[in-house]
C-alpha cells in the first residue's frame, strides 16, 4: 500500500509560513525546557511536564503519578500538535532545508534519502509506527502526503503509542519509583547539567545564524532552515519527535 502523495501544490502565503515557524519555535523551546526539567517534575508535576514535553521518557516516567484521562488528553494533544506542525514545516520548508544540507555537506545524507524513499513507498506505515518522529512527520509534508490522510494516521499511531507506554509504565512502576528515589538527592544537578548542554547548543546555533546573516541570507530563510535542522537532528537517535534528543519538538 502506497501512501497518497499530492503533486506540488500552490505555494503557501508568507503569513502561513511565518506562523508555522513561530509555532515550531514555541514547541521546540517548551519541549527543550520540559525535557531538561523532567527529572525534577516527573513525579511532582506530571501534567505540566507532559504539556511541555511529551517525549518517550516523560510519557513513560509519569505513568505512576498521573491519572489515565489527563495522561491521554495531554499526551495526545501535545504529540498531535507537534506532528502537524512538523508536517507543514516539511511541506513549506523541507525543500530549502534539504538543499541547504546538500550544499553544506556536498551530498544529501543517506538517512534523509532513505526516509524520503520510505515515505514514498510506505509512508502510511512509518507514520503509524513512528507517530511524532520529527523526520517522518517532516518528510510526510515534504513528499506531500494528503493532509487528512496523514492526520488520521498520526492520530491512530499516537493512540497506540500512548497505550503501549501506559502499559509499560504500569509494568515497570516499581523500577520507575526506585530510579526516581535513587536520583532524588541529585535531580537538580542533573537538571542544571541538561540546561548547560542546551545553552551550549544554542550558542553554537547562534554563531551559525550570525555567519549566515553576514553572508546575505534572509533572516526568514535562516530561521526556517534552522528550525527544520533542529527537528531533523533527532536522527539517528530514538527516531521520534518525542525521542530523547536535545532538539526534539515534542
What do these coordinates show?
By secondary structure, the protein is mainly alpha-helical. The chain has one domain. 74% of the residues lie in helices and 0% in strands. Helix 2 packs parallel to helix 4, helix 4 crosses helix 6 (134-142) and helix 4 packs across helix 7. The longest helix is centred in the middle third of the chain and has 38 residues, at 68-105. The chain is globular. The two termini are 28 Å apart.
Which helices and strands occur, and which strands form pairs?
Elements lengths: L13 H28 L4 H7 L3 H6 L6 H38 L4 H20 L4 H9 L4 H25 L1 H10 L4 H28 L4 H14 L18
Helix pairs in contact: 1-2, 1-4, 1-9, 1-10, 2-4, 4-6, 4-7, 4-10, 5-6, 5-7, 9-10
Q: What string, H for helix and E for strand, traces the elements in order? A: HHHHHHHHHH
| Strand count | 0
Task: Assess the beta-strand content as a share of residues.
Answer: under 5%
The global form is: globular
Number of domains: 1
**Mean pLDDT value:** 82
Classification by helices and strands: mainly alpha
Helix content: over 70%
The separation of the N and C termini measures 28 Å
Number of helical regions: 10
Uncertain stretches: 235-247
Largest sheet: none
Radius of gyration: 18 Å
Amino acid at each position: 500500500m502506497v501512501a497518497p502523495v499530492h503533486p506540488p501544490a500552490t505555494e503557501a502565503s508568507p503569513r502561513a509560513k511565518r506562523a508555522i515557524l513561530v509555532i515550531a519555535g514555541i514547541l521546540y523551546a517548551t519541549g527543550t525546557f520540559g525535557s531538561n526539567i523532567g527529572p525534577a517534575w516527573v513525579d511532582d508535576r506530571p501534567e505540566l511536564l507532559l504539556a511541555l514535553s511529551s517525549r518517550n521518557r516523560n510519557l513513560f516516567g509519569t505513568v505512576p503519578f498521573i491519572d489515565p484521562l489527563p495522561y491521554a488528553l495531554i499526551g495526545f494533544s501535545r504529540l498531535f500538535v507537534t506532528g502537524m506542525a512538523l508536517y507543514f514545516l516539511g511541506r513549506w520548508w523541507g525543500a530549502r532545508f534539504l538543499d541547504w544540507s546538500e550544499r553544506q555537506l556536498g551530498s544529501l545524507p543517506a538517512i534523509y534519502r532513505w526516509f524520503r524513499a520510505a515515505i514514498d513507498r510506505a509512508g502510511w506505515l512509518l507514520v503509524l509506527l513512528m507517530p511524532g518522529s520529527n523526520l517522518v512527520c517532516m518528510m510526510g509534508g515534504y513528499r506531500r502526503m494528503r493532509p487528512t490522510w496523514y492526520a488520521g494516521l498520526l492520530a491512530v499511531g499516537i493512540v497506540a503509542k500512548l497505550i503501549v507506554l501506559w502499559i509499560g509504565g504500569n509494568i515497570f512502576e516499581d523500577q520507575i519509583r526506585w530510579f526516581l528515589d535513587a536520583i532524588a538527592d541529585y535531580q537538580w544537578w542533573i537538571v542544571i547539567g541538561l540546561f548547560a548542554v542546551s545553552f551550549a547548543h544554542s550558542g553554537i546555533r547562534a554563531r551559525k545564524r550570525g555567519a549566515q546573516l553576514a553572508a546575505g541570507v534572509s533572516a526568514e530563510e535562516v530561521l526556517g532552515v534552522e528550525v527544520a535542522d533542529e527537528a531533523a537532528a533527532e536522527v539517528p537517535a530514538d527516531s521520534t519527535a518525542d525521542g530523547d534528543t536535545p532538539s526534539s519538538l515534542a
